[in-house]
Design brief:
The protein is mainly α and 224 residues long. It is built from 7 helices and no strands.
Length: 224
């Protein structure tokens, strides 16, 4: 997941060795010339972050117990089309922009939401009732591990991106413990952590849009 673009907002970690086409303009905007380049596509980070944030927010509100669990199917459409397909597409565009971090993050979490949709629609009903919680817990643990090691690289992107990954790691850990141990309180905690994660990701998405639109830093994200 990225917060800043490879151009005006800068999702690419610093010191990539890439040259800016216009170092003077990059300097004027407070962006490292090494991280500034004219990509072949418009920055997909705002789309990827927005898709991730909205889908995470809706599911997390349910996990936090703010609305009844029975309405959880409302998130499936978001998981398939926005959090899943739209975010995965943002990752493909990041590959074209030669942004390894953004491509890996967006494609992975897009695939996460697609897998969540498939699990909810097709796989969950076939799980043995006695072990369903452990199976879902294992699924969430695997995503916690992936998110934790992506957090290491997120530190080099920006403070905003790093915060998203820290809270997302904590969210997955709490949800893993809640599912595996059948601890409702941990699931609720995971819901609240997910809400915080979504709000930070939304801010980062807004920053990409605003900074690119106004062609200056309107909303800072703590670029490193």
């Amino acid at each position: 997941m990225s917060v800043e673009s490879s151009s005006t907002a800068g999702i690419v970690p610093a010191a990539t060795g890439r040259r800016a086409e216009n170092p003077v303009a990059a300097k004027d905007m407070g962006i490292s010339p090494q991280a500034s380049v004219s990509p072949p596509f418009a920055d997909p980070a705002a789309l990827g972050l927005g898709a991730f944030a909205m889908t995470t927010f809706v599911l997390s509100v349910i996990n936090a117990g703010l609305i009844p669990k029975d309405v959880e199917p409302v998130v499936l459409g978001l998981a398939l089309f926005y959090g899943g397909l739209a975010q995965f597409a943002a990752g493909i565009w990041e590959f074209a922009n030669r942004n390894v971090f953004g491509a890996t993050a967006f494609c992975s979490y897009g695939a996460f939401w697609l897998s969540f949709w498939f699990l909810s629609q097709f796989s969950a009903a076939g799980l043995p009732a006695a072990d369903a919680g452990k199976a879902v817990g294992l699924y969430l643990l695997a995503w916690a591990i992936f998110t934790a090691y992506m957090t290491v690289s997120a530190w080099r992107v920006s403070t905003g991106v790093f915060a998203v990954f820290v809270f997302l790691t904590l969210t997955f850990i709490a949800l893993f413990l809640g599912a595996f141990a059948g601890a409702t309180g941990m699931t609720v905690l995971g819901g609240w952590l997910g809400i915080v994660t979504a709000l930070i990701a939304w801010y980062c998405s807004l920053a990409v849009v605003a900074n690119a639109t106004y062609k200056r830093t309107v909303l800072p994200v703590g670029r490193r």
